[in-house]
């Protein structure tokens, strides 16, 4: 197959040779119409051969289904070959070789069935390809990247993520998160945001878009027009924000404008009601938001993709089929159908029925199909849809990638408070107690950190794991262990509000008179609940689902034992520490 990098010469799509294109293709003598580009001519030729069913297929992105070998199953094949899905989103975790084989299988199914178009294969890779590829490189969360205050760090993270994603068969990443996290109690964005300052989020967003797209992976600014001031998790319910139009335009929209100016190729919608624009419908279903604001006012010409339509904010209120039709009519180009198989089929069928009945116009469908095809052409998928599984293993395991991650992590770790507690001296052979909670029923977080401390202190470490909300008995046991320790590390974690037991654990260990450093694993606001702790470090490393980012934990342990911290708070801690706080040794 010929690559379409310059759109010059004949173009092979599937088994059909399209008309030869020259540099002057589309020109016509005496025509008042503007000349069509070679790419537009190719898109017209493809669409002329597509059935309505095939066009609808390009507008739906189902999540894939797996067999016991973690490979795509028969249901997934039917979605691609029978329902003509033009894109997919992949969940689950596999090693690089298996991921490459998985994505190749998806592309083979698409190639073996009309219209033979390559697939856009997407995933959430917010903290690196590691999010779904087990041997890939884990990077700090976006708030950690924000704490570096360095656009180069943001771009470097995106570059490596794109290289590893592309090697394993992904061509579309749902990152960066362009939400400005102005609500400390936000239950779903939190450390996924670069921070609370619009200027910081805007610059970091633009840098990451460059890093992703210049290295062959579609970037996605999300969640338009902003999910940073919500108090409801849209996975669980329908959120609404009540700020005025001025706040929307000065605080939440600028990162998306920066994304558009940086050439972002896709923007994801938020399942959030923006009262300043539309008081009735969430952005995903609102023509006022998607067409009026994003297309007409902000001038975005790229592809609009919905957030997952199985999230309760949409699914419980409207249902898969009705919501899909509403979203496309509102201006969305691709509907992310992430529910069960029946809900996915309902999405395809509802869109097909709406096109037949006239509820969805042919013009509207064609607009979106053109954008989807344009994206596939831009990213050269027609001539290069498969990847080499053996090469993928080598790409994701490059030492240089791991060092980039470690360097960004070191620059992100923020020493917020230090009353002559840190650094601990690794050569002193003092006994360190690591005491803290399990997270979401997992002890791996604390065990991993204790193991890292063990390496630094030559075996002089004890660990004690409490429940997520430590009980009185657990706290008493931790205090008893502290009596034999020389110094204490207390990791804490909160996805929104810190459990009272964790705060009490820190306070009681502080009361022993031993040197205590608390380390927030998630949001950096934990210190509000134990302000008298002797030392405090923010890592921004765990989000509300509990996904581990050990790169950040190792960097935090290194800082505790003497490595110079580099981070500055990308958010303010009300009443205690302003934005930009960050100490050094």
Automatic annotation (TrEMBL):
Catalytic reaction list: Hydrolysis of terminal non-reducing N-acetyl-D-hexosamine residues in N-acetyl-beta-D-hexosaminides
Q: Name one GO molecular function term.
A: hydrolase activity
Signal peptide feature range: 1-25
Concerning InterPro entries, the annotation shows: GH (IPR017853), Glyco_hydro_3_AS (IPR019800), Glyco_hydro_3_C (IPR002772), Glyco_hydro_3_C_sf (IPR036881), Glyco_hydro_3_N (IPR001764), Glyco_hydro_3_N_sf (IPR036962), NagZ_Beta-hexosaminidase (IPR050226)
- List, for all copies, the residue spans of the domain called Glycoside hydrolase family 3 N-terminal: 54-374
Report the family membership.
Belongs to the glycosyl hydrolase 3 family.
Q: Can you say what this protein is called? A: beta-N-acetylhexosaminidase
Species assigned in the record: Fictibacillus fluitans
């Amino acid at each position: 197959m010929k690559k379409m990098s310059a759109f010059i010469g004949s173009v092979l799509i599937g088994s059909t040779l399209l008309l030869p294109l020259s540099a002057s293709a589309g020109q016509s003598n005496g025509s008042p119409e503007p000349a069509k580009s070679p790419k537009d001519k190719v898109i017209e030729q493809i669409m002329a051969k597509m059935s309505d069913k095939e066009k609808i297929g390009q507008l739906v992105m189902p999540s894939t289904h797996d067999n016991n070998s973690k490979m795509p199953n028969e249901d997934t094949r039917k979605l691609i070959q029978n329902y003509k899905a033009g894109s997919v989103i992949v969940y689950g975790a596999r090693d690089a070789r298996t991921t490459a084989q998985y994505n190749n299988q998806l592309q083979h199914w698409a190639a073996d069935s009309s219209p033979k178009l390559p697939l856009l294969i997407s995933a959430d890779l917010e903290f690196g390809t590691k999010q779904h590829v087990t041997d890939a490189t884990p990077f700090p969360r976006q708030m950690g990247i924000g704490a570096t205050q360095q656009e180069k760090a943001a771009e470097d993270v995106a570059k490596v993520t794109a290289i590893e994603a592309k090697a394993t068969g992904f061509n579309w990443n749902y990152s960066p998160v362009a939400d400005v996290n102005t609500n400390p109690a936000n239950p779903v964005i939190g450390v996924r945001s670069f921070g609370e300052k619009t200027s910081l989020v805007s610059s970091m967003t633009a840098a990451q878009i460059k890093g992703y797209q210049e290295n062959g992976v579609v970037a996605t600014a999300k969640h338009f027009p902003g999910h940073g001031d919500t108090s409801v998790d849209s996975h669980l319910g329908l959120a609404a924000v009540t700020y005025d139009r001025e706040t929307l335009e000065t605080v939440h929209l600028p990162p998306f404008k920066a994304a558009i100016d940086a050439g972002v190729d896709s923007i994801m919608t938020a399942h959030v009601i923006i009262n300043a624009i539309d008081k009735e419908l969430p952005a995903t279903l609102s023509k006022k938001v998607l067409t009026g604001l994003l297309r007409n006012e902000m001038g975005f010409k790229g592809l609009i993709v919905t957030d997952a339509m199985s999230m309760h904010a949409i699914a419980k209120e409207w249902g898969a089929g009705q919501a899909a039709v509403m979203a496309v009519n509102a201006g969305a180009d691709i509907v992310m159908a992430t529910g069960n198989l029946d809900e996915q089929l309902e999405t395809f069928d509802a869109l097909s029925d709406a096109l037949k009945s006239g509820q969805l116009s042919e013009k509207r469908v064609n607009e979106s199909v053109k954008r989807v095809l344009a994206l596939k052409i831009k990213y050269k998928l027609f001539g290069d849809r498969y990847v080499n599984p053996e090469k993928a293993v080598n790409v994701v395991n490059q030492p240089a990638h791991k060092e980039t991650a470690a360097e960004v992590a070191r620059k992100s770790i923020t020493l917020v408070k230090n009353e002559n507690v840190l650094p601990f001296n690794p050569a002193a052979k003092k006994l360190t107690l690591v005491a803290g909670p399990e997270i979401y029923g997992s002890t791996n977080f604390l065990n991993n950190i204790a193991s890292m401390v063990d390496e630094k202190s030559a075996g002089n470490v004890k660990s004690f794991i409490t429940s997520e909300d430590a009980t009185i008995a657990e706290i008493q046991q931790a205090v008893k262990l502290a009596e034999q320790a020389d110094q204490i590390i207390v990791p804490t974690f909160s996805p929104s509000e810190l459990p009272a037991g964790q705060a009490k654990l820190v306070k009681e260990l502080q009361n022993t008179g031993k040197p205590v450093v608390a380390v927030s694993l998630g949001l950096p606001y934990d210190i509000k609940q134990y302000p008298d702790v002797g030392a405090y470090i923010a890592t921004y490393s765990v989000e509300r689902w509990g996904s581990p980012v050990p790169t950040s934990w190792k960097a935090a342990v290194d800082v505790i034992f003497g490595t110079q911290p580099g981070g500055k708070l990308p958010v303010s801690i009300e009443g205690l520490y302003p934005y930009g706080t960050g100490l050094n040794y």
